[in-house]
Amino acid sequence: MIDLDAIRADTPGCRDLVFLDNAGSSLPPRQVLDEVQAHLRREAEVGGYRAAAERAEDLEEGYAVFAELLGCEPHEVAFTDSATRSWLAAVDAMSLSPGDRVLVTEVEYHSNALGLLNLGIKIERIPSDPSGRVDVDALRDMLDSRVRLVSLVHVPTNGGLVNPIEPVVEAAHSVGALVLLDACQSIGQLPVDAAALGVDVISGTGRKWLRGPRGTGVLVIRDQTGLRPRLIDGKAAVWEDSDTFTVAQGARAFELWEYGVAERLGLIAAAKYALRLGISEITAAVSANASLARSLLAGIPGVTLHDLGGDKSGIVSFTKAGRSVEEVRDRLWDKGIAVSCSYSSSTRYDMTRRGIDAVVRASPHYFVSPEQVSEFARALTDV
Ligand SMILES: *Cc1c(COP(=O)(O)O)cnc(C)c1O
């Protein structure tokens, strides 16, 4: 069981706010904040190079920490500056050409879809089953040897859906296609184990459920993919002679030399914090808060829940009759309750299909108390 008092003491912000925007950008615990601030101070004392050298072992340990978190080998981990950067880097390495087929789920995220469209790739949508999850039978019917990539959003940005992974991987691998798992909304709230799931590539971000600093992301490139980056720098390769160079083995070839060292240390601290609490404990606590929110919201006149799927994630999406999503968000904010809005422009296939322009998104993390969830429901009743 998560010790709520201890966890809340680590997160000063959660006393002043009912913070329900962990799907947007969470409140980092003090362990993360301390790490970032201390490193920035050290950089100001001795310069960035010396400061980084002092933390070389901790920075190296970060690969092992994320390997543990994501069920892969340390050399399969690369750090980036966002989930989108990770996703784009992996897709770029696939050197897709217009004849290749790429399949996506109906809850594909805008930045992923736009990245593909800009490459001139025709995107084919895998239908959803009646519950809203990716329809694996429909996927099987779409597969042939020209399918290079199946892009699978684990948890979409706009609601409680959790997509199945293993059957998608099994189907995709039967024709030699790679599965890229967008785990941006699942890392830090649900278990994501690359080896157990069999996925080929994972993209994730630091600031959402993992509670790390902004401007941080992670990319897992599993050995089985053989993917190599097309764009490299002096971190990825050694310049041996005027025209010769050797590219580093493993996912690290996807990194660039320069990065925010303080933020990286903060990200590693955030992952350690999550591992210390235990992902299954976190999942249970987030799920309890989201279930409580859904059951309370279901009883409020005029409120409609929009979450798809069976077992749901910590993202609770809803609208209130007679109020715009912005009005709901701003009125709640005035009462010290942080929620955000999610628009059809982020998940166009899904929202257009369901005829929804926008939803309010409440995403309670484990540090939110049940009393705060009730406070949110009472406030929404009055909006
Ligand atoms: C937020 C989000 C992303 C993008 O993450 P960034 O770190 O902002 O690049 C990708 N996919 C999903 C499902 C998201 O919710």
TrEMBL record:
Top-level taxon in the UniProt lineage: Bacteria
Keyword terms: Aminotransferase, Pyridoxal phosphate, Transferase
Entry-linked Gene3D superfamilies: Aspartate Aminotransferase, domain 1 (3.90.1150.10), Type I PLP-dependent aspartate aminotransferase-like (Major domain) (3.40.640.10)
One Pfam family per UniProt: Aminotran_5
Keyword Transcription on entry: no
Domain Aminotransferase class V residues, every copy: 18-376
InterPro entries: Aminotrans_V_dom, Aminotrans_V_PyrdxlP_BS, PyrdxlP-dep_Trfase, PyrdxlP-dep_Trfase_major, PyrdxlP-dep_Trfase_small
Molecular function, one GO term: transaminase activity
Cofactor: pyridoxal 5'-phosphate
Family (UniProt): Belongs to the class-V pyridoxal-phosphate-dependent aminotransferase family.
Name of the featured protein: Aminotransferase class V
Organism: Kibdelosporangium phytohabitans
